Amino acid sequence: MKNRQFSEDQIIKLLQDAKKGEKSVEDLCRDFGCSPASFYAWKKKYGDTTAGEAKRLRQLEKENARLLKIVGQQRLEIDAMKDVIQKKR
Question: Name one Pfam family in it (predicted).
C-alpha cells in the first residue's frame, strides 16, 4: 500500500468539512483518500485548530524537542562531572 502524506492545511480542511456535518466521516475519508482511523487520530491531535494554529503547534513541538535534547545533554555532562569529582576524592 502507498503511504500518503497529507499537509496540515488539507487535514484541517477535512476536519472542518466533517464539522459541517454535510457528509458522513466515512464518505469524507473515502473522497479524501484516508482511513477513518487516520481521521480520528487527526481529530484528536488538531481538534478545532485553524491552519495558523496548526503551524504554530508544529513549531512549538520542534522547539520542545530541541530543548529536551539540550537538557538531556546537559544532564549527561553534569553526571560525568560528578563522576570525575568523586574519583578525585
Answer: HTH_Tnp_1
What are the tens digits of pLDDT across the range 20-58? Answer: 888 999 999 999 999 999 999 999 988 888 888 888 888
What is the separation of C-alpha 67 from the centre of its chain, rounded to a whole number of angstroms?
Answer: 16
1, pLDDT greater than 80: no
**Contact criterion met (CB below 8 Å) for 46 and 12:** yes
Radius of gyration of the chain (CA): 22
Domain ranges of the chain: 1-49, 50-88
Q: What is the DSSP string of 56-80?
A: HHHHHHHHHHHHHHHHHHHHHHHHH
Handedness of CA 3, 9, 37, 33 (dihedral sign): negative
Per the structure block, which three cell numbers stand in for 38? 487516520
